[in-house]
Structures are given as structure tokens and as C-alpha cells.
Amino acid sequence: MSALLDHLPELWQGLLVTLQLTVASFAGAAVAGTVITALRVSPVAVLRLLGTAYVETFQNLPLLVLLVLAFFGLPEIGIKAEPLTTAIVVIALYEAAYVAEALRSGVNAVARGQGEAARALGLTFGQSLRHVILPQALRTVVQPLGNIFIATTMNTALAGAVSVVELTTAANRVNLVEAQPIPIFVGAGLAYALIAACAGFVTGRLERRLVMVR
Amino acid sequence: MIRVRGLNKWFGDHHVLRDIDLDVDRGEVVVVIGPSGSGKSTLCRCLNRLEAAQQGEIVIDGTPAPLEGRALARLRADVGMVFQSFNLFQHKSVLDNVTLAPMKVRGVGRAEAERTARELLERVGIADQAGKLPAQLSGGQQQRAAIARALAMRPKVMLFDEPTSALDPEMVGEVLDVMTGLAADGMTMLVVTHEMGFARRAADRVVFMADGRVVEQGPPAAFFDGPQTDRARDFLAKVLTH
Fold it and tell me: Which one of A139, A206, B69, B165 is most buried, by most CB atoms within 10 A?
């Protein structure tokens, strides 16, 4: 137990980095995921293909591979960035594929007549999507998006592989000094569980508030 | 106002519209009737290109209907449409349903859009429901809200695709009353319906469709009292005798 308490400052610092990674990459994933969803339901075949190719690519590659590739590959082509920034961007692009799939299932759940009514009023495809389809789609996929947020939290641990000292890496470093893995990793695990529990709580509240009577 | 020439549409191998020619003059009320599967709803949906017809031309107010893109959106803004299943935006209040398109498509300011919307809701008799969500309204109220939403764009012509077919019988009247009022005010209307009473009362012309063709058309009195074709006689005998 003292192993944990003696190193609280380092672990706290790791937790802050984990939160930073989670919030920033999820925000990026939400924006990119919405754009990809728009591509996937577009009336233009080339754009649909582009959206599908994106999702297939990022869902079919392990995040760890992507992180390592970006970390070593980007400097090769002249792009230099902080490891933290690289990790945020890569995790955001990776999770965007999952956000896009959740949103697309929401779009498919919106009744056909809603889009027809919007178009019949003279709204363009983009306007129908923005004002009519997506707001309704979002309401049906609050829970899956919450799950993606939790998965994103857990996935940020992989950023340790590209020298970002987030919570798991911080715990690992403390363990190298103290050699007491059980209390140290139980402590780190509890911190992750707390983040996930908060996400679950917020999702539940949001879902009840946004529930749409049909 | 509407001119259709040689319209043909197939769903796969199924030929649903066969060489349709149809004209609707400014201020005219045309009611399209016919058995289920005769293509009358499809025809209605082709006019603002919610369905794409493979052949033929559609001219709205002198302009050939564009096939896609912003030009098509502009055309649709001038053609009001009322659906069988209302299709009110489920996540928006009745008032927001009515103001959305004027604000986003026409660029009208919120204050003016809301003023117009309240006038229209008053006109269709549901001014007191403005703040409610569609799901909190009865079917008849929802359909009247949908009519107000279409009218808010100040359309040149209104299309009604079986507007009362999804309603409980006691709510059909309130919707037909609104439509009759519109017709009396001189709105150009094309109405697909099974309501023979409305056709007889409000139509300037009745178009009878069967098997994807316009079989017969004429003034309502002449059509209902003395149909010229066997197909129309047969249809009227079935719908008017019960």
C-alpha cells in the first residue's frame, strides 16, 4: 500500500495524461466520425466508397501497429510532432471508424420519411443530414458512443508504447522501482474503472434526457 | 403549372408508370384516384423527384425539373408535399418543424419565420399545439401541422400523397376541411386519395389511374355519374357501393 501512496504524484501525473489522451482523442473521433458517416450515407458513390475504405482500414488494423507506424513513420516523411500529439491524432483517427459505424447504425434507424420530408422542403442533402437525420441518429446511439468512449480510455494505455507516460506506463515505472505489482496495478485499475463509471453515468443521464418519443 | 409528358417508371421489371401525360393548371385542383398499385402515389412522388422516373419530362411552372443537386432542391422548395405518414421531424416541436425550411432554405429570420408559422398553425387550427413534439399530437393534428409546414415555404403547388390514409376515421374530416379551404383559396393542388367525397366536392378534375396508366379524366360530376371506361365503372362500383 505504501508503494502506491509514496508514488502518488507520478501516478497522478500519469492519470492526467490518460485523461488528456482520452478527452482529446474522443473529441477528434467524434468530429472525424461524423464526417465519415456523412460520406458513408452520401448520394455520391465515390464519397461512399471513400468512407467505407476508411472504416475498413482503421477497423482492420491494430491500434498498436498504427501508433508505432505513425511514431516512426511520420518523422521519415518530415512530420515531427510531440509523442503525445501523435498519439492523440492516431487514437482519434482509429476510434473515428468505430464512432462512424455507431452513427451510421443510428442513421439507418431514422425513418426514411424523415429524410424525404426534409428534401421535399428543399433542404440540400447536407442540410437534411445536419438538421434532421443526424440529431435523431445521435439520440439512438448514445449508449454505443458511451461504450466507444470507455474503449478509448482503455486504448490510451497503448500510447505508452510510443513513449507517452500515461497511467499504465507510470504504474509500470513505479513497479520497476518498488516491485509490488499487485497494489500498484490494482490502484491504476481502479482509476480506469472510475473513469469508465463516470462515462457510464453520464451516458445514462444523457440517454434519459435525449430520449425521443416517436 | 405542372406538365408531364411521356413519363415511364420501372421498379426492376415492374413497369409502374406507363406513358403518363398530365397537366395541372394554375389554381386547379386535380384529384388522382384509382386502385392500390395503380401507380398514383408513385406518380405524385415522381413530380418532385423523390422517385426517379427513367423516361419522360416533368415541367414545373415552365422550368424542366432538374435531376439532382441544388437546382433540384430549389425546385422542391417551391413544391409543397404532404405525406401519408406525416413525416414531421420527430425531434423538433411543431413550431420548429414549420420554421426549419423557411429559415434554412429561404434565409428568413427566426422572428419572421415564427410569426408566419403561428399564422399557418392558426389557419390549420392547431395554434395551441405549437410547443409540443409531434408524438404528443393526434394523427389529424400531425397531418395539419405537416400541411402548415409545407405551406410555410409559400409553394406554387401542393402535392398530397394519400394524406388521410393513415388516419383514424374521425380525424379524416379535419384534414380534408383544411385541404378544402386551401382549394377554395386558389392553391394549385394535386391530391392522391381514396376519399371519393373530397374528390367530388373539391376537385376541378378527377384523374383515374389503373395499371400505371391514366385511364380516364374529367370533371368530378361527369366522372362519378357517367364513367366512360369499363375499368373506371368497375372501380367506382366497388368503392361507392359499401
Answer: A139
Cβ contacts of A214 on chain B, cutoff 8 Å: 90, 135
Task: Quote the CA–CA distance of B7 and B209 in Å, as a whole number.
Answer: 14
Within an 8 Å CB–CB cutoff, is residue B50 touching chain A? yes
pLDDT tens digits along A195-210: 999 999 999 999 888 8
Mean pLDDT of the region A163-167:
95
Q: Does B87 contact A212 at a Cβ distance shorter than 8 Å?
A: no
CB-based burial, A122-142: b 16+ in 10 Å, e otherwise = bbbbebbbbbbbbbbbbbbbb
The CATH T-level fold of domain A2-210 is MetI-like fold (1.10.3720)
Specify the DSSP element, H or E, that contains A199: helix A181-210
How do beta strands B29-33 and B14-24 pair? unpaired
Residue B221, classified by CB atoms within 10 Å of its CB into exposed (0-12), middle (13-18) or buried (19+), is exposed
Q: Are residues B189 and B79 in contact, defined by beta-carbon separation less than 8 angstroms?
A: no
Which cell numbers hold the place of A199? Answer: 462515462
Summarised one tens digit per residue, pLDDT across range A40-81 is 999 899 999 999 999 999 999 999 999 999 999 999 998 889
Query: Are B83 and A213 an interchain contact pair (Cβ–Cβ within 8 Å)?
Result: no
Q: Is the pLDDT of residue A178 over 80?
A: yes
Positive or negative torsion for Cα A184, A186, A191, A196: positive
